[in-house]
Amino acid sequence: MESSSKGEEEVGYNSSNVKKAKLQSTLAALLDDPILADVPKKPTLSDVDTLINLEFGSAMRISVLKLDGTSFDVVMMNSATVKDLKVAVKNKVTEMEQSQMGHRHISWKHVWTNFALSYQKEKLLDDNSALQDFGIRNNSQVQFVPYVMTKSSGRHSKRRKHRFFHGLNSRA
After folding, report:
1. The pTM is what?
2. CA 172, CA 167: separation in Å to the nearest integer?
């Protein structure tokens, strides 16, 4: 009896693997369809939900122009904030970089310290502001622009820090 129950388990295990393989091949075939070209290669439920909302009009497609002149699109809900846009940009760039060059680390802290997103020459600096407050709608284009933080943002420049520590050394 033990050998027959073991055989049934193997058949059940193999049929489960067969079902998974069929599902993966069907999913791969669907994602290769040109109609679904905007779906990421490994979509999450939120990615699919956002794309469905785009079709219903409660989401918007935003084009992001990089400094090298190339651009890519991200899909955001109409109620999205600047922070949501930054997260979408980060995810899209990471996905593109990994598909083209494999694993590559980008310091996003460095990116957001030295560059800002801009829409019609207005920098999107307040992470909590809604994109619609800036007039961003479906098919709008935002772009990366160089940005230097000022003292009013609460951070000192490197030169200021250097002078502070240098003054401590001269007193000793």
Report:
1. 0.63
2. 9
